[in-house]
Amino acid sequence: MSDIKQQNTAFRVLLAISVAHLLNDAVQSVIPAIYPILKEEFALTFTQIGLITFVFQMTSSILQPFVGRYADRHPSPFALSVGMCISLVGIVLLAFVANFGMMVLSVSVIGMGSSIFHPEASRVAQMAAGERKGLAQSIFQVGGNGGSAVGPLLAALIILPNGIRAAAWFAVALVAGAFVVIKVGFWYRRIVASHMAAEVRRRVSVLDLSPRQVRNAMIVLVVLTFSKQFYLASMSSYFTFFLMDKFGISVRDSQLCLFAFLAASAIGIIAGGWIGDRIGRKYVIWCSILGAAPFALMLPYAGLVMTIVLAVVIGLVISSAFSAILVFATELKPAHVGTIAGLFFGLSFGLGGIGAAFFGWLAEKTSIEFVFQVSTLLPLLGIVAAFLPDMRKVDRGN
Predict the structure, then answer these.
(1) What is the mean pLDDT of residues 117-144?
(2) Contact yes or no for 189/80 (Cβ under 8 A)
(3) Angle of helix 368-375 relative to helix 211-247, nearest 10 degrees?
(4) Environment class of residue 212 by beta-carbon count within 10 Å: exposed (0-12), middle (13-18) or buried (19+)?
(5) What is the distance between the alpha carbons of residues 208 and 393, in angstroms, rounded to a whole number?
(6) Taking the CA of residue 128 as centre, how many other CA atoms within 13 Å lie in the half-sphere pointing to its CB?
(7) Distance between CA atoms of 193 and 394, rounded to whole angstroms?
(8) What does the pLDDT look like over 223-255, one tens digit per residue?
(9) Given this model, what pLDDT does residue 280 score?
(10) What percentage of the chain has pLDDT greater than the value 70?
(11) CA–CA separation, 3 vs 105, rounded Å?
């Protein structure tokens, strides 16, 4: 990782940050994966489960724009390892919870660590991208999606047979991730941070868009993020309950089905970044969210096997949207990469938390099956992507 030409993509850096993202998000995904265990052991209601998710997602989101804004002005190469160490404290607390209050405290600490990690990590991915920003963000994101997919599987293998205290084993992943990002931090400090100002000046271009057009495009991206994250909140937090309630399968089998959905999401995200660099991110966003709608609408009414097949297809299709949205937003505001990354990561986590809390409340008032009948309408909002400007012809100062 000695030096790079500005037009080249630093794949070793991207691989390292993707691995760290995998380890970080694997630990985060343990939280929704053990909901059935927590619900049974502590007699939690769906409303309490939604509140746990809400606190976790809000603490994951509320600091991210501020961390990103600070990183734009004062690069912090070792903030990544600090964030993972804070999450380490949270997962150890979670392993020894004795009541609902401790659960809320532990997930809030994990969320704070995540809020520090993500904006700076996304900034590193952007600075190491060269001319392949979509692919770079996809490599970074696929680590997170992979971690989110592996987490429930590891929870089924480690925590389910051994109890909640086995969650302490996940501290090993965060220690390993902290060591990985320390190496990235040295690269960042030596190469990226020293040339950041010159790189920003070189890449900032005069977009052929008015301030109003930029603002309207940002609003559309926020709406699209809302539709995607609210839908994913229903899948990640309640898909296991839906399968157990409708088909009577075991906790273990339901977690394996959740793993299949999340693994499909991890696979699909790479294709989205690669295609977005070639045909334009607007069309990837449009096809990703709206394209998932027909499959989502069928899911609540299908049999068990077809439900799993549809979940895999939805994961493959919808997963590419976030990387494309994030890169699209940074192209609208190229001098504020950290702020935009923090804003959209924060928005993503925050909306996910609100969605989980809302759907938990709705499940209490109606049923899990009704929750899925309602949530499957959300991908239809993908149609608003038609109002995004075409960015393919914008000069980026290369």
Answers:
(1) 80
(2) no
(3) 150
(4) exposed
(5) 9
(6) 30
(7) 26
(8) 998 898 889 888 888 899 999 999 999 988 888
(9) 73
(10) 89
(11) 42
**Amino acid letter at 236?**
S
pTM value is 0.69
Average pLDDT over residues 5-17: 76
Find all residues with CB under 8 Å of 106, minimum gap 6, and list them: 90, 91, 93, 94, 97
As a whole number of angstroms, the distance between CA 345 and CA 237 comes to 18
Interhelix angle 11-33/133-154, nearest 10 degrees = 30
| 393: its two tokens | 């012809």
